[in-house]
Amino acid sequence: MKSQDSKHGGAAPSRGCFANSGNGPTLVPIEIGHDDYLALIDPDTAFWSLVGRGDLAGTLGGGKLLNAYRRKAAAFADEMQTLRFGLKPSAVYFNPTERCNLDCKYCYIPRDMRRDGEHMPPDRLMDALARLKAFFARTAPKGRRPQIVFHGAEPMLAREAVFAGIDAFADDFLFGVQTNATLLDESAVKFLVDRNVSIGLSLDGPTSATADRTRTTWAGRGVFDHVVAAMDRLRGYANWSVIATVTSENLRSLTKLVDFFHRHEAPTCMLNVVRCTLPASRKVKPDDASAAKYFIAALDRTYELFQRTGRKLPVANFANILLAILAPTARRLMCDISPCGGGRCFFALAPDGGMFPCSEFIGLDSFRGGNLFTDDIESVLASKPFQLVTGRKVEDIDPCRRCAIRHFCGSPCPAEAHEMNGGMGRTGAFCEFYEEQVRYAFRQIADSRQEAFLWDDWDAGMKTTFAV
After folding, report:
1. pTM of whole model > 0.85?
2. Which of 86, 175, 210, 399 is most deeply buried (CB count within 10 A of its CB)?
3. Paired strand residues for 40
4. What is the tally of helices (H) and strands (E) in the chain?
């Protein structure tokens, strides 16, 4: 989700440990063992400021900071209210096929669907895009093109239909393709690059030995070389990225993986901790402490590489946490806000026309809200399956309701909370991992290093609404 026009926060110069801390402005340390600074956070509005321990009396006792904040608190609350409850869908994750030529260990789509599922016929794909065009004409802001991301399973198995749709609706949508890269040959790359389609690849390790532990064909063969070949074809193209799913199988290789992505000049990457919606994915779930340790080491490496080469490698999912702190409405992803973006900022479309709040739910038929070809889209968005997701709020989840960082994390993910932990009122799989990310983010802000982790010109067109 791209955004809007404001950034706010507070005084920076770090370090701590967050705890479930009640409501109202709360002082919390930001790094265990380093007590120079505390974060003052209001969980309700996502306001923050870093306050030196030696300045506590002057800062809080004199009341200047809190008085200045109170004058802006209502505006901050309105901003968060709009971000959380006032947005309309602006993107669709369009699955043109249920099938995939890979059998990845952690996939959120059931194996029988990926092996024997159906394709969306070309004429139905065109019909679907026409229906989506009509919907967005009613709902999207004037002059803003909605996004269609061809997603999977593996969308390149339906290449002919997908490419025809991209050409037919080039003026109506911003298109993207998320692919395992096995079918991304030179002609496919040329087609997508010539049309400025965003391209996402998937690779879980810097070597085939690591990558092939979780991502193989149905015959058990790895595809590392195919992905590297696609990365080489895309070198110099600005509109591509690579996603690594973080599991117990590649955790210790994340720093080397960052080196690998940087060496291949990936413009950006994601290190997404595995979603534990289906039982198979839980078999490769890392524990929170280990995930945080190696993830943060990989972030440190991106900073070292930037210092040495002058070239950034933003890790988009961490950059989004930084933006949640620095400029809440500027966050580009909507997984770490509550309610999440599923069914609210985007929805997912299955090959049979089934509509789901997010692709993570496509294997869960109870979350099918309706069908694009038979139902009114607005009615589907208001259906009970969608409302289960769009109505999930951190204020209703224990211990999130008492957590100081609840709007920097959002208690993801509703699909894994429901399937793994028993309901929408439960946390997801990685509470402590997200807590460590926020703690690390505050340390970078305190040391004035945040720009090294963000995209260039991320704040273009924004205005600072609060600064101390």
Report:
1. yes
2. 175
3. 27, 49
4. 17, 14
